[in-house]
Each structure stands twice: as structure tokens, then as C-alpha cells.
Specification:
Layout: H1 5-21, H2 23-30, H3 37-60, H4 63-81, H5 105-125
Helix pairs in contact: 1-2, 3-4
Amino acid sequence: MPLSEYEQRMLQQMEQQLRSDDPKLANTLADRQRPDVRRLSLGALLFLLGLGGLVGGVATGWVWLGILGFLAMLGGVLLAISGPRGGAGPTVKGGRRPTGSGSTSAGFMQRQEDRWNRRNEERGNR
């Protein structure tokens, strides 16, 4: 059921207010990527095949089949929860990665080092 014009206007006003009140949260919510259905379904299928192999290995006493089943289950879970290869890291609309220094690990380490130095200076002044 589509929204009425009044509801659409109210929703737009709430979105604008969110962007003005907390732009970082608004960007985080806007940049959420949809899960890859193909990757999820392949991971679930691999998990189920591995579960079958594990149960079959236990039922027949073939240890190697149980181990292969377990490894297939593990691979299926990792496939389902992992992101696409080479696409790690945040992206901006249009598929580009942000170029700001705040998103790199070097920026994170620099911030941690600055915090450490400030704490040491505060403790030394007391």
C-alpha cells in the first residue's frame, strides 16, 4: 500500500531532520549495502551439503566423510557471511571508495597514538 502525500511529506521531513541532527548516522544508514543473495544461497547450500556429509560420515563410520562434511559446512558459513572479494571497505555512491584519511588504518593508529600522548601528558601534569 503506497504512502499518502501527507505521509510522504512527513517522512521527507523526518529524513531531513535526521540528516541535520546526526549526519554521520544518516550517512551510515544510507550507505548500507544489501546482502548478496547469490552468495547467501550458495553458502546455505554448501552448509546443507556439508551437514549431510557430516551425518553420513557419522552414520557409516567413514571419518574422512565426516571431516569433509564439517569443512564444507565451515566453508558454507564463511561464504555466506563474507563480503565480495576485492570490494572490502566502505564505498561512496557510484561504487567509489572514499579518499579521506579518516577511513584508513593509518589514520586510526594516528588517533590512538594522539590519545595515548594526551593521557600521558595529563597524568604527568597532575
